[in-house]
Amino acid sequence: MSLQGATALITGAGSGIGRGVALRAGKEGMNVVVADIKGHDKVAEEIMAAGGQASAAPLDVRDPLAWEEVVGQATSDYEKIDLLVNNAGVVSEGLDNAVDQSDEQWDRVISINLKGYFNGMRAVMPSMIEAGGGAIVNVSSVAGLVGMVNVFTYSAAKGGVIGMSRQAAVEYAKSGIRVNVICPGIIETPILGDITDELRAHCEAFTPVARLGKPDDIAAMAIHLGKPESAFVTGQVIAVDGGWTAQ
After folding, report:
1. What is the pLDDT averaged over residues 145-153?
2. Please, which contacts does 33-38 make with residues 24 or more away whose CB atoms are closer than 8 Å?
3. Which of 22, 42, 186, 231 is most buried (CB neighbours < 10 A)?
4. How far apart are alpha carbons 128 and 101 in whole angstroms?
5. Which residues share a beta bridge with 56?
6. For residues 215 and 187, is the Cβ–Cβ distance under 8 A?
7. Is 78 a catalytic residue?
8. Which neighbouring-strand residues pair with 8?
9. Those residues with Cβ within 8 angstroms of residue 198's Cβ, 6 or more apart along the chain or in another chain
């Protein structure tokens, strides 16, 4: 089923997974609202250069007023938002465990990775309800499913995304809104930083498919969950991780 002419709002779309989702949405014929604090202009230009329709939207997901402006502009330009992909996220700088984490780092990660998603859902859902429905895809992480080292706050935020999404899926199903979660494994994006060859080899060896993920691996699932053919899928948490969490 085609998404031609539908509208997608994607956060963190200036790079990494968000950029991958935005580019794929453009290829599907969607109107793409490329939202980020940086890089959004370039990605919107990429989509339009390929023959797609896109607009760049500067957005700090922590700011509810900024969300209202972006959603208002998007609904003015394209009438409605059919798909929201909450993807913007950060990791802690330095140690991220229960003992060494600072209040400042905790607040930063939670405000972007969890509250930013809440801000987005709160801003977009009223227009989706008015339009008769829509799809929301919240990008969590395998760190929200299993214990890992040095991602204490990040895991707390990503686990919160899962719980929040399930609650919203149940509460708004009768309004025609579907809410699902993608949990990426290790994906080759700027958030990885400059990992060593040794660490890369270790990650590949631990992943059953023997490679790191690509942004388009996540984009494929995000767009699939936005399609009408996924109409009976809501409240689900889907790991796209090359088999990482199956072990």
Report:
1. 92
2. 33/7, 33/8, 33/9, 33/57, 33/70, 33/74, 33/78, 33/81, 34/10, 35/9, 35/10, 35/11, 35/59, 35/70, 35/88, 36/11, 36/12, 36/88, 38/14
3. 22
4. 38
5. 34
6. yes
7. no
8. 32, 83
9. none
pLDDT by residue (tens digit) across 94-138?
889 999 999 999 999 999 999 999 999 999 999 999 999 999 999
CA 115 from centroid of its chain's CA atoms = 13
What span, in angstroms and rounded, lies between the C-alpha atoms of 71 and 181? 21
Query: Hey, which residues does 10 pair with through a beta bridge?
Result: 34, 85
Give the closest residue to 139 by CA, choosing from 240, 43, 231. Answer: 240
CA 197 to chain centre: 27
What φ, ψ does residue 100 adopt, rounded to 5°? Answer: -95, -10
Tokens of residue 216, six digits: 């388009």
Determine the Cα–Cα distance for residues 19 and 39; give it in Å rounded to an integer.
9
Per-residue tokens: 58? 């500067």
| Planar angle of CA 33, 34, 38, nearest 5 degrees | 150
Q: What Å distances lie between residue 98 and 73, 95, 106, 163, CA to CA?
A: 41, 9, 10, 21
Query: Model confidence over 235-244: pLDDT tens digits?
Result: 999 999 999 9
Is residue 134 helix, strand or coil? strand
Nearest to 138 by CA among 7, 9, 6, 2: 9
Per the DSSP assignment, residues forming a β-bridge with 207 are none
Structure tokens of 55? 């607009």
